[in-house]
Design goal:
Elements lengths: L1 E7 L6 H7 E2 L4 E10 L5 E3 L5 E2 L4 H8 L1 H11 L1
Antiparallel strand pairs: 1-3, 2-3, 3-4, 3-5
Length: 77
């Protein structure tokens, strides 16, 4: 199971960073990442890099290159 998750962060003091990390849907400054868990709820896939502010789950999957990495692991066996 993979899930894109949003982490609330402290409001940055720099105005530029504040605007880059603000999520209007959550009304907070956030960072987003992709993680994978197994059926037991244990994190078993590496967590992606953190992405700033408003970004969709689809964009996180694409920008993290998760599907390409998964494909390489499946081919390698």
């Amino acid at each position: 199971i993979i899930d894109a998750t949003e982490l609330n962060i402290q409001v940055p003091s720099a105005l530029q960073k504040r605007s880059e990390t603000y999520s209007t849907s959550k009304s907070h400054t956030t960072l987003n990442c992709l993680l994978g868990v197994d059926a037991k709820g244990e994190i078993n896939l590496s967590i992606s890099q953190l992405f700033e502010g408003p970004i969709s789950d689809k964009q996180i999957v694409e920008r993290s290159e998760f599907l390409e990495i998964l494909g390489q692991k499946l081919i390698a066996g």
